[in-house]
Amino acid sequence: MDRVIDWLQFAERKNIGVVGLISTFLVLIVTFLTAGPSVPTLAGVGLALCALTLMISLLLALASLLPATDLERSVMEERELPGVEDNLIYFGTWLGMSPGPWSGPRPATLRR
Questions:
Q1: 34-86 pLDDT, tens digit each
Q2: Would you give the end-to-end CA distance of the chain in angstroms?
């Protein structure tokens, strides 16, 4: 479970970094457009489109930071049994399982 928590914390840190970079570039573009020297029309349109796409990506990055709170769905949903190739560490799937065909000796490729 510690690995999953570390993965989630790392993903949140990366997301916060992305939000910071997008915000910085957005402030730079808007400041340049409003208080900077006059720019040609085509460059102004390009910078405005860039600012618009940065605003959309900032909203998406902020929305991905919100927690998923649909507990009924995650607790009550029907789940299929994991197969041999499944990642059993992901969100503690392995906690509610009994040993299966994967509990035998490890393949030679995994031995150290």
A1: 898 998 999 999 999 999 999 999 999 998 888 776 666 666 667 676 666 66
A2: 23
pTM for this prediction: 0.57
What distance in Å separates the CA atoms of residue 53 and residue 47, rounded to the nearest whole number? 10
Q: What share of the chain is helix, strand, coil (3-state, %, to 5)?
A: 65, 0, 35
Containing 57, the helix (H) or strand (E) segment is: helix 41-65
Domain positions in the chain: 7-65
Residues 105, 60: Cα–Cα separation, whole Å: 45
What whole-number distance in Å separates Cα of residue 103 and Cα of residue 99?
6
- The total of other beta-carbon atoms located within 10 Å of residue 54's CB is 20
Q: Which one-letter amino acid corresponds to residue 64? A: S
Residue 6: φ, ψ to 5°: -65, -40
